[in-house]
């Protein structure tokens, strides 16, 4: 039998931030961390949905220590406000879970292509603004949720915001490749420190992520097809969140590891979390460094706490 949530160790005294914790994988991740004693912050875009998620979590885990804080990853002012409000509080686990998939073309508040802006740049900035708190907690971890669909596209360093041409699935693949390149470079910069940067993919999990893009595009038949596929083939969120929970809490998780379902099958995660195939371009040192520097320039977050590793 492989690793399961029952193997999560006692997390009392640990503090976790989970982005996009109002539903799906993020909610399950936050709930299970809280169930093991961690103090959990649900970092959510919507006050209404976030409050509903917090109430649901407290109903399912009455002893949980959990709170809601607003965070809009599509607005760097919101990211900075979240980090400033965090202050000098302890931080042990940062789960970069929130994301968009295959949505119609749009721009963030700062003018970035929406999927690249939310999935990568928002989390890049958030992690950079909180990294000093992670460095102060030996054994801290940064877990970033990527996807096997990073295989759709390598990053285009000359067109990070898809200005030449926007194809929503290609843009999604690029943003998920960016997640892996970010993890690769962050792991390099953290070398010799007691913080682990790891990436995960959830497999095909039944969440609202699959239908949102079609709904925003106004395609009813695509939305129905996505909903049907999720119902028939996708694993429940409890299974999809397992790789994130493993990367956040299991012993001996390697820096720059990529954890996902060891065997992909209909509604199964046989064998527990394992090491899925990863595109070679996501381990390219030169590309990862160039994306890092471009991300610093775009966000204005320069990671001073890790400057000595540059």
UniProtKB/TrEMBL annotation:
The record, for NCBIfam families, names: PRK06197.1
Q: Show the InterPro entries listed in the entry.
A: NAD(P)-bd_dom_sf (IPR036291), SDR_fam (IPR002347)
Q: What is the lineage of its organism?
A: Bacteria, Bacillati, Actinomycetota, Actinomycetes, Kitasatosporales
Keywords (alphabetical) are:
Oxidoreductase
Q: What's the domain of life for this entry?
A: Bacteria
The family note in this entry says: Belongs to the short-chain dehydrogenases/reductases (SDR) family.
User: What name has this protein been given in UniProt?
Assistant: Oxidoreductase
Organism annotation: Streptomyces litchfieldiae
């Amino acid at each position: 039998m492989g690793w399961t949530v029952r193997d999560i160790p006692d997390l009392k005294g640990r503090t976790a931030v989970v982005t996009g914790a109002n539903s799906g994988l993020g909610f399950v991740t936050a709930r299970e961390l809280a169930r093991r004693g961690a103090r959990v912050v649900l970092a959510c875009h919507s006050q209404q949905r976030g409050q509903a998620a917090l109430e649901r979590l407290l109903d399912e885990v009455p002893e949980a220590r959990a709170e809601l804080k607003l965070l809009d990853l599509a607005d760097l002012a919101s990211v900075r406000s979240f980090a400033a409000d965090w202050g000098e509080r302890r931080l042990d686990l940062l789960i970069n879970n929130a994301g968009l998939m295959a949505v119609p073309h749009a721009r963030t508040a700062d003018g970035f292509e929406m999927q690249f802006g939310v999935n990568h740049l928002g989390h890049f900035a958030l992690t950079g603004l909180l990294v000093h708190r992670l460095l102060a907690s030996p054994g801290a971890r940064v877990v970033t949720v990527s996807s096997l669909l990073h295989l759709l596209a390598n990053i285009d360093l000359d067109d990070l915001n898809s200005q030449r041409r926007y194809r929503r699935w290609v843009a999604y693949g690029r943003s998920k490749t960016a997640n892996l390149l970010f993890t690769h470079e962050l792991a390099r910069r953290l070398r010799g420190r007691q913080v682990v940067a790891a990436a995960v993919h959830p497999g095909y999990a039944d969440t609202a992520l699959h239908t949102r893009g079609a709904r925003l595009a106004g395609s009813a038949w695509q939305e129905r097809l996505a909903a049907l596929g999720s119902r028939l083939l996708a694993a429940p969120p409890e299974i999809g969140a397992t790789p994130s929970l493993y990367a956040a809490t299991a012993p001996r998780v390697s820096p720059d590891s990529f954890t996902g379902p060891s065997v992909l099958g209909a509604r199964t995660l046989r064998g527990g979390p394992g090491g899925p195939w990863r595109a070679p371009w996501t381990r390219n040192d030169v590309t990862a460094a160039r994306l890092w520097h471009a991300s610093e320039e775009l966000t204005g977050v320069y990671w001073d706490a890790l400057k000595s590793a540059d």
